[in-house]
Structure formats: C-alpha cells, structure tokens
Amino acid sequence: MSISYSPCGHELTLELLAQKSELVLMQALERVISDVFKESYAFYFSKSLSEKEVPKSIFVSHRDFCVVVGPVDAVVDKLQQRQDDKHLIQYHGDSVIPLYHQAQLVGFLYIEGQVNLTIATLIKHLLTVFAHQMATLHFARIDPLSELLNRQTFDEKVMEITNGDGFTVCRDDSEDRKWYLAMADIDHFKQVNDNFGHVIGDEVILLVAQKIKANFRAEDYVFRYGGEEFAVLFQSHNDDSAVVALERLRSTIASSRFPQVEHVSVSLGFTEVVDTLQVSEQVHKADLALYHSKENGRNQVTNYLALGLAESQYACAEIELF
Fold first, then answer.
1. What stretches in the chain show pLDDT beneath 70?
2. For FRET with 32, which of 41, 42, 105, 309 sits at 20 to 30 Å CA-CA?
3. How far, in Å, CA of 315 to CA of 152, rounded?
4. Which fold does the domain 151-316 belong to in CATH?
5. Percentage helix, strand, coil, to 5, in the chain?
6. DSSP letter, residue 63
7. CATH superfamily of this structure's domain 9-139
8. Could you give the residue numbers annotated as active site?
9. Cα separations in angstroms, 12 against 8, 40, 117
10. Which ranges constitute the DSSP H helices of 2-116?
11. Angle at which helices 151-162 and 279-295 cross, to 10°
12. Which of 253, 246, 249, 252 is nearest to 286 (CA)?
C-alpha cells in the first residue's frame, strides 16, 4: 500500500472537528481518505446514525469500484457477525474498516487490497471522530418538541439536493429516484389548542411528527417547518408512487386516535424538487398544492402539477393557510 503523506492524527482530528455542516464534514473526510490511500476505496455511511438504515455510498475513489464492493448487505452481515470492534477486517481479499456509533454499525470504509494495521488504526479513529461530529451537528438541528429536523436545517438540505448531493454514489441508474418536497399541515389545529389547551396541542404535534417520520425511510428528511406545519424531503420513482406514500401517511393519521382530541387529519401538497428553482420557489409550489388541499375539504393530498398553473399564475399566487 502506498501513502501520499503521514499526517498527524491530532491535526486530522482537529480538521474534522472544525467543520460546522454535515456536507462540509463529509467533504473533509473524503479529502483525508483520498490523501492517505492510493488504492481504490468506497465509504458507506448511515446518515441517520442508526443501524436500522443500511449504509449508503457517500464517496468513492471511482464509480467502477462500486461493482467490486458488491452488495452492501453482504458486507454489513459480515461485519455484524464479528463480536469485537476490530480496526480492520479482511473481506474477499480486500480490507474493511468498520464504523460504530454508540455500539451500532453505522458505516464502513472499503479499501482494495491489504491495508497496513497502523494506518487502519488511524483511519478507524478518524471515522469515529467523524461519526461523533456528525451526531453533534445532527442533534443541534433537532426541534425539541417534535424531535424532527428544525426549520433552520431545511434550506440547507434542499440546496444540497438541488446541487446533486442528495443521491448515493453507488446506485443502479435503472432504479434512479427523484426527490420530492411535501408540505403537511394539521387541519383545524387552532381548535385543538382552543378546546383542549396548548399541552394537548403540543402532544398532538409530537404524535403527528412521529407518524410522519415512521412513514418514510431513514434516509429521507422530515422537518418541523413551523407551528403545526411539517416538511418532508423524500425520494420516489415518480409522481404516482409519491402520491401513494403521502396517501399512506394521510390515512394513517386520519385513522389514529389521539389523547382527548380523538381524531385529527392533515392536508398535504407536494412537488418534485428541481435544480432550476430557488428554495423559496420549491416551497411556494408545495404550499400552493397544500393550500388547494385545504380549500377543497382538507384531509387530502394534492400534486402541484394537478393545479395546472401557468408560470404567470404560479408567480402571482398568494397563500394563506388557516
């Protein structure tokens, strides 16, 4: 194995700890890995920091190496069979450095060929620092009531997606999915607060938030956008499958029982995320669809495209949720 330089582990640790956004932190780790290894490599990570999410490819030395790594599930199974937290594991003649966070396997670095144990130990340490810093950044972005991502994180995630950073590197082109933005609002929420008080209202927000999060994959993003309004960034193959996912959520909430309130419903509007629009424009389209759901009986899902708005109408449309 060839190494381009032998950096101080302390300096590299400080470099990772200095990063204040998840995307920049991942880019910093990629720089470190590319400087250390001349062999082919691929890094897989669960952004939810949970082993319930299968690690996704974050960066790779070259895309052809995805084929060499093979099925991620097979690598994960091999790592989970190990009872110890080893720095380096051999797999089909290659090297794998596992990444654990709070005793859960949340990722791994796959390197072609054999890796020196000293270097593997350094990289293992840096991966651990990376995971801890990711956790710190992640939990700083959590809304304390709903336990969802907060409003301040929303713009950053939309911009990442429109810049092409929302997809995994090693993916089958035939299975490409699109990103969608959905806005959801609890119907008649003011009546909940007026009739049952803000304590019950807060509990309704928390329970609805939990149901929204449970409805989507760990790699999707769910936000408390403000008050009783939520935003979801999720992947789907097409508009029809996006409607299915959102209808499933709407139906789940409508059929659930809530303390004292008994039943609540949500109205939803959604649009495909496209890279030619600003964040505010993406939100405006989803909000127009949400407003249509509110105006036409609530407790329903509306696709922005179904509104049939010309661009001039879209630009002039005013929204007032109630």
1. 1-8, 83-85, 165-175, 310-322
2. 105
3. 24
4. Alpha-Beta Plaits (3.30.70)
5. 45, 20, 35
6. T
7. GAF domain (3.30.450.40)
8. 228
9. 6, 21, 18
10. 9-17, 22-36, 65-69, 72-80
11. 110
12. 246
Residue ranges per structural domain of the chain: 9-139, 151-316
pLDDT at 4: 42
Tell me how far apart the alpha carbons of residues 144 and 275 are, in angstroms, rounded to a whole number: 31
Neighbours of 57 (CB within 10 A): 20
Strand stretches in the chain, DSSP E: 41-45, 56-60, 89-91, 94-101, 104-111, 178-186, 221-226, 229-236, 266-272, 301-303
Which tokens hold the place of 46?
A: 């669960």
> What are the start-end ranges of the H helices in 150-268?
151-162, 189-196, 198-215, 239-254
pLDDT for residue 83: 58
What does the pLDDT look like over 235-277, one tens digit per residue? Answer: 999 999 999 999 999 999 999 999 999 999 999 999 999 988 8
- Report whether 135 contacts 49 (CB < 8 A): yes
